[in-house]
Amino acid sequence: MEAGKIRVLGIDFFNGTAQGSVDAIKGGGLLVVPAAPALITIDSDRMYFEALLKSDVAIPDSGYMVMIWNLLKRPSLKRISGWKFLTTFLADQEVIKTDSILMVDPNAEEAAANAQYLRSLGYTMDGRHSYIAPWYKGKVEDKALLSMVENQQPRYIIINLGGGVQEKLGLFLKNNLSYAPSIICTGAAIAFLTGRQANMPGWADKLFLGWLVRCIDNPKVFVPRYLKAFRLITLILQHGQKAPI
């Protein structure tokens, strides 16, 4: 395990600041931001778990995971939310000057909102900077996206898809590209910035209340999802630093 990382359930989580995590991924590699509802599937979804294990930077986004770990285990883990990482990343002057980003979006509406938001930050966004992902079934591979990335060779690829899918797609790109871009799997985090999901106040993020904001905004979707996440405490109690499979 590398210095500055803490292993939880076999995954080496980055333990530092948001800016530190941004700096850590600038040189290329795969960054993942696993949330609690996805983490509870690692003992049943081997492809997803493999993507987390083979990531270069794993952000401890789950406030629930961090609280459980810090209550029961040592050394303590510093939470970095996907929201905090992404706002820090997109505001980074070096990233802005590079202006070489490809967004992988779930649909045209999200793509338009994301492009508009990035343009407001000073990025040049046009049709070349967005890819609308298909609905992936079974093994997550995308040769059309792979070809597009090879042709354009963007420095940064931000995947804005659901947890459990985007990480597999990110690993597919990492394993098959001829160069090493920064592949960033932050999922719906950008939707908080564009307003496509419930607005995320800074104080709510600092108090680990992102889950509550989501549940209030869309209870039918998020309440059942977060109720299932309570299983995470059992996994941590049983396995600690060790992988559950």
Task: Give a structural overview.
With 245 residues, the protein is of the alpha/beta class. It has one domain (5-239). The protein is built from 14 helices and 8 strands. The strands form 2 sheets. It has a 6-stranded parallel β-sheet with strand order 4-3-8-7-5-6, with helices on both faces. It has a two-stranded antiparallel ribbon with strand order 1-2. A hairpin with a 2-residue loop joins strand 1 (5-8) and strand 2. The longest helix has 13 residues, at 108-120. The chain is globular and about 50 Å long. The two termini are 18 Å apart.
What is this structure, in a nutshell?
The chain has one domain (5-239).
Would you spell out the secondary-structure blueprint of this structure?
Layout: E1 5-8, E2 11-14, H1 18-25, E3 29-32, H2 36-39, H3 46-53, E4 57-58, H4 63-72, H5 82-91, H6 93-98, E5 101-105, H7 108-120, E6 130-132, H8 143-152, E7 156-159, H9 166-176, E8 182-185, H10 189-194, H11 202-206, H12 210-217, H13 219-228, H14 232-239
Parallel strand pairs: 3-4, 3-8, 5-6, 5-7, 7-8
Antiparallel strand pairs: 1-2
Helix pairs in contact: 1-5, 3-9, 4-14, 12-13
